[in-house]
Amino acid sequence: MCYVYGVNAYFITTDTGADFPPSHTENDFSMLPLSYIIDGVDYDGRTRAYLPLGEFYAMLSSGKTASTSMVPTAEVYDFFADIIERTGKDILHISFPAAMSGCFEACKEAAEKISADYPERRVVVIDGKCASVGLGMLCMYALRKRREGASLDENAAYISDLRDHIGHAFTVDNLMHLYRGGRLGRGSAVVGQVMNLKSVIMVDERGALVNISSVMGRKKALRALVSKMKHDWAGGDDDYIVIGHGDCPADAETLKGMVEEAFGPRDITVTDIGPIIGSHCGKGMLALIYIAKNKTDRTF
Fold first, then answer.
1. Lowest mean pLDDT among 5-9, 41-45, 133-137, 141-145
2. pLDDT higher for 14 or 175?
3. Angle of helix 73-87 relative to helix 103-117, nearest 10 degrees?
4. Among 55, 168, 211, 282, which is most exposed with the fewest C-beta within 10 angstroms?
5. What is the torsional sign of CA 270, 274, 276, 281?
6. Above 80 in pLDDT, residue 196?
7. What's the average model confidence in pLDDT over 232-237?
8. Is residue 188 part of a domain?
């Protein structure tokens, strides 16, 4: 899609911690590649392309462990500088949350260096306080706001408010991935796997993960996601709903049908959860993202 934004044209960027739906990509939008390591090989999305998702999740299923690392400030600087030199445009960057990663601080440091080296240009960095498809959906709203004619500063203010209303409800299929990522104790993970417990998790007002419940079995976990959305919902007919899945498209379609049954026919985007989030949550993650009254309510 091609749009004309006028004299206040600017780039919108995020990072690959945002599982942004490819179907919503626009001009003047780009994603900073974060890196992951699996089977001893570093995939940085630049010098070595990410693995096809099917292959990545197959490796996890075979017992391989994936990890991620903080992006160096120098790489963020190069990412911003390349956009500025190619386009001459300012940048609104919506970052992976500081509560989960050091990426936000690296982006702020890079923006300060850009300000010194390119004083005629601006890079505004916002802590997205959202993760995975939640961060992706926040960027979808930023792109919509830009299409409506919002300036960079107007959009930054809009996103800074909206990020507190991006509801996240998700579950994982294998609790051991949360244990390896430091989000769950080993004892709880082992017992949960043996008992087929599935965590119901949200992202709170700080952008941190909060385990709000555990239910028995996958079907109850899906019902809990829809229940959480029904409890939180503050959206309208033209608001986005996004479902993200970690290589479990059939479950994603089942969840989509459950949402439509609860809310009526909707334009629901279903998309993949990529390797950055997949490294920590594993194959079988399901995320339901929607407009919420707030991100502080732990009940459903």
1. 5-9
2. 14
3. 50
4. 55
5. positive
6. no
7. 94
8. yes
Local confidence band at 185 (pLDDT 50, 70, 90 cut-offs) = low
Is there a domain that residue 299 lies in?
no
Q: Where does a domain end: 133, 164, 195?
A: 164
DSSP string across the chain: -----GGG-EEEEEETTS---GGG--TTEEEEPP-EEETTEEE-SSSSPPPPHHHHHHHHHTT--EEE-PPPHHHHHHHHHHHHHHH--EEEEEEPPTTT-SHHHHHHHHHHHHHHH-TT--EEEEE----THHHHHHHHHHHHHHHTT--HHHHHHHHHHHGGGEEEEEE-S-HHHHHHTTSS-HHHHHHHHHTTEEEEEEE-TTS-EEEEEEEESHHHHHHHHHHHHHHHB---TTS-EEEEESS-HHHHHHHHHHHHHHH-S--EEEEE--HHHHHHH-TT-EEEEEEBS-S-----
Whether residue 209 is found in the same domain as residue 267: yes
Instruction: Give the pLDDT confidence score for residue 3 in this predicted structure.
Output: 40
Q: How confident is the model at residue 46 (pLDDT cuts 50, 70, 90)?
A: very high
Q: What is the number of structural domains in the chain?
A: 2
The pLDDT assigned to 193 comes to 54
Do the domain assignments include residue 115?
yes
Q: Are residues 193 and 177 in the same domain?
A: yes
| Residues 185, 157 share a domain | no
Beta-strand pair 66-68/286-291: unpaired
**Distance between CA atoms of residues 266 and 258, nearest Å:** 11
pLDDT at 187 over 80: no
Q: Write down the pLDDT at residue 182.
A: 54
